[in-house]
Known about the structure:
A: 3 helices
Amino acid sequence: MEPSDHLFRREAGRIVATLTRIFGIHNLALAEDVMQDAFCRPLEVWRLHGIPENPSAWLMATAKNRALDVLRRERTARALRRNLDGFSTANGHSPPLLKNSLPPARSKMTCFA
Amino acid sequence: MSEFVYLYRGGEAGRSPERMQQMMQKWMTWFKQLGQQGHVKDQGQPLERAGKLVKGKQKTVTDGPFAETKDVVGGYTLIEARDLEQAVELSKGCPIFEVEGAVEVRPVMKLNM
């Protein structure tokens, strides 16, 4: 299938709009990051095997899954931080090592194509 | 005809959807051309960037990536060509060179039994 030249740009816009609804408008930058990351994976497969019939649906599904991953990781990080805070107040000092070693909510995303 | 493996190393695409789409279309064009000339034995699969490395008598398991990002193998393709020279020439059409990637061309070893 030959995609139109603007397929990805159009889909990028739709996806960022949807992700902004999921993450909230204050997380626009995060939505854009997730969109770019979500584009990378299908592209690597499609460049070898060709574009499927409905690339839009694939891109949106990948983006939503990626968004859920990010939200899940943030929730875990928040929960862990609460536990650690409890630990440090109970003992009057910071827990060793752990305090600043939580994975950042947004790791660096790399795209190859 | 002999068989060769192309190992795609590194190569970071641009971040804009237009750029991603352009790169993907270049890959598809290159691949289509190779296929029409009868050089593609198996189009192969892209590989996830993360993995595990199992090593030594102790079978120590460590996390990937195993080398610097620019060296990580992101995919492979099985190619048929007359000889190594031709396989190398054919690889020069790969769009990965535009994004500072590399193609490793390796002859598949054959035993005549």
